[in-house]
Design a protein that fits this description.
Elements lengths: L6 H36 L2 H19 L5 H7 L5 H24 L1 H8 L3 H18 L2 H9 L3 H24 L5 H21 L10 H25 L1 H10 L1 H20 L1 H14 L4 H36 L10 H15 L1 H10 L3 H26 L3 H10 L2 H8 L7 H25 L3 H24 L3 H8 L3
Helix pairs in contact: 1-8, 1-13, 2-6, 3-7, 3-10, 4-6, 4-10, 6-9, 8-9, 10-17, 11-12, 12-15, 13-16, 14-15, 14-20, 14-21, 15-18, 16-17, 16-19, 17-18, 20-21
Length: 481
Amino acid sequence: MEQTETFAQIKRKTLISTLSLFFQSGYSAFLGLAANLVVTILLTPKIFGMYITTLSLISVLNYFSDIGLAASLVQKKEVSDDDVKTTFTVQQCMIIVAVSVGFLVTSFVKGFYKLPTEGVYLYWALLISFFISSLKTIPSIFLERKIKFQRIVLVQVIENTVFYLSVIIFAVLKFELWSFTIAVLLRAVTGLILIYILSPWSPTIGISKKSLKQLLSFGLPFQASSFLALFKDDLIILFLGKILGFEALGYIGWAKKWAEAPIRIIMDNISRVLFPVISRIQHDKVQIGKVIDRILYYQTLILAPTLITMAIFMQKMVFIIPKYGKWAPALPLFYVFCLASLFSSYSSPFMNLFNALGKVKISFTLMFVWTVTTWILTPLFTLWFGFFGFPYVLLIIASSSLGVSFIAKRYISFHFFKSIYKSLMATLCMGAVLLFIMQAVPHVYAGLALSAIFGALTYYLVLLLLFRINLVKELQSLFVK
């Protein structure tokens, strides 16, 4: 049934899904900041810290609750009842084991973190919500396969609204740590009810050996890649904190977080939709090539000017924002991370391509090589270059995106340089104008305003006059069926 959809229908669903994810990201970020502001005013750091700690413990359990079976269902061309039944049964068995272990180690967790009775109840509430949330997996997969992310987003928006409003209300009523306990349970139950309304499904139990074998052939390497990403990106930070000290790590973390903000907001949401989209059309290599071309084109159109503007403006911003001048020593790191972010954004579409085509061993191998390279080069580069070492390593690994594109060409025909060079040239012209105006206008605020106006105008005119690309019409074309 899904294969009979036209490419125009899939394109429209993709656009709606992507815009929905952008809305959800922005809405959740705003609501989260507002709630955090309220609770950090009303609650003590100790109480808030207990919530963050117990939430982190559940995140560890969450990682080991899946062996990639959910991703396997999204990737498969056709899904049978046995596939769905097997995935649900195996995952629930793993969830029940994880939750049971969580309850059994309550005494250890309570003693290790010195949790009060209220903290233990919060820990239990998170375990229960963890189980309840796992029941949403299959209905969510059905929506992903149909590329109806707007329904998933609706559930997430209502969940977050219920959670944050509950936290605020009960914190105001002086429920203290109980505020989080109640909010966690309300969120889980609300999300479960909504997802089954929007994507009805009757749970069935059973395991098909044939289905399990097929699903694991994709799922295990997929989950292994996720583990390597965790090992490469998160654990290396703990290592740097040990050998460089927290001050240097603070500079690295600040620069990395700001430089990667655009790809976190833009590429992460695009990637979430791209995987099921390519999975749906994996039989049509020509259309996949067109999708890759358009993704490369649009991501460069947006990311390149965004990153260069951030790189040029940040030098002024750290001195304009009160008490932000302390981050000035991190600016050179920020510039390196910005370049690395642009390069690394080009590997994301190809990793999704490999996974969607079932070539998950390729993405696993690449992630393995990147992880080993990170852990070999980071200690050496840190010894040679100090706190510049890790940014340099990240830049080297990010630049390998070009090599990833050559691997992808073995399976799909697309036009890498043709898709990106126009936007890159317009971005360089824009950057030159930004730098010139920033240097020529001595007044900080006037310089920022004028450079923003003339920089954007330069980008628009270069694309229009040199390459006949009208940004307004490009935007309109996205909404044409």
